[in-house]
């Protein structure tokens, strides 16, 4: 038997020659290149489509009667609904509107005065127009909100930022204003954030970029008041506008409002200041409330939570929390709403006062205004809240006496602060000089809160005396402003129109009507004239100036009418009774003024913002 060859057969795989392989590689390269071109073309087409859709949406005004889409069309500047902004009895707007419904102004004797009727008709029309206007989106939003995935964040060049940091190192006087009003703890906090963003070791978050833009916008606003800065005015203006625009873009994304992080809280604090400057009180209230809730969620109101943080971080958190606390309590008193942060739930301590002579007065002032804010919150809670209104008159008087004692103690301690060595002495004096005015304004608000009805007798002598002293304090301080710079006038207008309810003006108006007091009328006129000089060019003062003008004109027309009547008739002594309703002044009670409207001309309303008589966004 022949042996068989069992060796495995080798398979022969044909190989392409060199030219074939080169041709195949070339074809593969072109195939990949064509695929990439196709992908790029798809992306370009997608971008074109999105741009066309956006341009179409921006340039098209949808018809209100027909639409092919099942989704509702949202307009950027429309109202949110038919709800007005609710304010409590401690707000200046509510007090002023209640004041013009007094019986003296609605009596049959006053109804024969065309001048009085016309001025009342003006306010009546404003109230009704505001009631129908709803809540405007612009009151809450600074700019159109971009989609988060399309967010493009810009920053100034690093060379410009380094120049800013050099100015901050050299000019210590700039720092206290920045830290006091905007919750930034110190210069190192800004430098650390700059290093993290301009020289990153890890990825940079949108919150970090937004926060830095906010800080830089604040710093540039302060540097704009320095004449000999190494940074030119043109550079400051240009980059301040860019930083602020980018900050607003980052502020109005969902994550900042929804996620309680320290960075988001700091963003909200800077946003509060921006809203305040623009006289957007609803936006300021929204941002402050959100920041306060973030603080509660993070435990910043509890000492055991803050004390576990590293020393520098704990100091920053304390400053941040108490800054928000001041704003929260201040808005509570001004708007007549309860605060978010309740004193019974807070035990976080303040930072120790700096031993650096230049900064000591600033830290003492900050601690003092924390105490003042606490009293402001108590004024609403104890005298103006719905629960307080149910208390017996004796209890309310006792509460007012206690609050007056606390406020007087605060004022006495305030006057003991020695700020002769403070960094930037002029700014300190200009910033806190009006302390006497806000003291008397708050004191007037306390005594006005004891009234259980709207009669004239409920304006007690101590209430009128506090109001009179408040207006006189303003007139005494006003001459210091005659040659002041614009930013000093702006600071003063902030205290007068924005920080407290200007209750002394309303109380003096009521006293003037009740007693036909020409001395009160003269005082109101002098105060109004000075207020026009201070706040005529400021957005947040304009609305309240209109309100003060209206009250003065009503008082002037009433006294002129009353004098004419006295010259024509022998008038026996009479008792003036005021009926200031405690309910919403935009109710049907306004119908009682209809009889004044016969035979009167319509007042030109084009120059008046109706929101000024309800939104207390300039006090």
Automatic annotation (TrEMBL):
Gene Ontology biological process terms in this record: DNA-templated transcription
InterPro entries the record matches: AtrR-like, XnlR_reg_dom
Q: Which molecular function GO terms apply here?
A: DNA binding; DNA-binding transcription factor activity; zinc ion binding
Biased composition regions of type Polar residues, renumbered to the chain: 58-73
Write out the ranges of the annotated region (Disordered): 53-74
Mention any Pfam family matching this sequence.
Fungal_trans
Keywords, in A-Z order: Nucleus
Q: Which residues form the Xylanolytic transcriptional activator regulatory domain?
A: 284-357
What organism is this sequence from?
Fusarium falciforme
Entry protein name: Xylanolytic transcriptional activator regulatory domain-containing protein
């Amino acid at each position: 038997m022949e042996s068989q060859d069992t060796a495995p057969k080798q398979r022969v795989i044909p190989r392409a020659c060199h030219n074939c392989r080169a041709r195949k590689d070339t074809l593969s390269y072109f195939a990949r290149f064509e695929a990439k071109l196709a992908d790029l073309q798809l992306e370009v087409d997608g971008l074109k489509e999105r741009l066309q859709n956006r341009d179409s949406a921006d340039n098209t005004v949808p018809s209100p009667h027909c639409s092919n889409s099942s989704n509702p069309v949202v307009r950027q500047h429309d109202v949110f609904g038919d709800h007005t902004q609710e304010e409590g009895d401690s707000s200046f707007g509510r007090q002023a509107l209640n004041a013009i419904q007094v019986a003296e102004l609605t009596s049959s004797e006053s109804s024969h005065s065309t001048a009085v009727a016309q001025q009342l008709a003006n306010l009546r029309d404003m109230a009704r127009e505001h009631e129908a206007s709803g809540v405007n989106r612009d009151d809450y939003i600074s700019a159109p909100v971009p989609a988060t995935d399309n967010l493009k964040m810009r920053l100034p060049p690093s060379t410009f930022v380094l120049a800013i940091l050099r100015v901050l190192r050299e000019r210590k006087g700039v720092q206290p204003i920045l830290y006091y009003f905007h919750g930034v703890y110190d210069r190192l906090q800004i430098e650390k954030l700059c290093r993290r963003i301009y020289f990153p070791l890890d990825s940079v978050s949108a919150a970090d970029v937004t926060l830095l833009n906010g800080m830089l916008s604040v710093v540039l606003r302060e540097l704009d008041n320095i004449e000999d800065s190494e940074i030119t005015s043109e550079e400051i203006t240009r980059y301040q506008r860019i930083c602020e625009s980018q900050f607003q873009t980052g502020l109005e994304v969902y994550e900042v409002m929804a996620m309680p992080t320290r960075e988001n809280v700091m963003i909200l604090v800077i946003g509060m200041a921006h809203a305040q400057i623009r006289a957007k009180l609803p936006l300021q209230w929204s941002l402050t409330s959100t920041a306060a809730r973030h603080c509660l969620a993070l435990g910043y109101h509890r000492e055991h939570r803050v004390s576990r943080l590293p020393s520098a971080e704990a100091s920053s958190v304390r400053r941040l929390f108490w800054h928000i606390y001041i704003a929260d309590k201040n808005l509570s008193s001004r708007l007549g709403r309860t605060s978010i942060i309740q004193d019974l739930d807070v035990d976080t301590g303040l930072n120790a006062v700096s031993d650096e002579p230049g900064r000591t007065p600033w830290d003492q002032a900050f601690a003092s205004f924390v105490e003042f804010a606490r009293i402001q919150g108590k004024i609403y809670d104890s005298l103006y809240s719905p629960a307080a209104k149910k208390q017996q008159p004796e209890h309310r008087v006792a509460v007012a006496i206690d609050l007056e004692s606390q406020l007087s103690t605060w004022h006495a301690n305030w006057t003991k602060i020695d700020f002769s060595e403070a960094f930037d002495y002029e700014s300190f004096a200009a910033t806190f000089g009006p302390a006497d005015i806000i003291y008397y304004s708050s004191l007037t608000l306390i005594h006005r809160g004891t009234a259980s009805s709207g009669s004239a007798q409920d304006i007690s002598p101590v209430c009128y005396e506090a109001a009179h002293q408040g207006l006189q304090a303003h007139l005494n301080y006003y001459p210091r402003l005659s040659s002041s710079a614009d930013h000093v006038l702006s600071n003063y207008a902030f205290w007068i129109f924005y920080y407290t309810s200007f209750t002394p003006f309303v109380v003096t108006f009521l006293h003037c009507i009740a007693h036909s007091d020409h001395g009160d009328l003269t005082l109101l006129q002098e105060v109004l004239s000075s207020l026009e000089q201070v706040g005529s060019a400021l957005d947040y003062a304009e609305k309240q100036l209109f309100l003060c003008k209206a009250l003065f004109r009503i008082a002037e027309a009433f006294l002129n009418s009353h004098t004419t009547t006295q010259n024509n008739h022998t008038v026996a002594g009479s008792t003036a009774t005021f009926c200031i309703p405690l309910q919403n002044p935009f109710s049907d009670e306004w119908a009682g003024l209809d009889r004044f409207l016969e035979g009167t001309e319509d007042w030109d309303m084009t120059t008046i913002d109706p929101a000024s008589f309800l939104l207390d966004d300039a006090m």
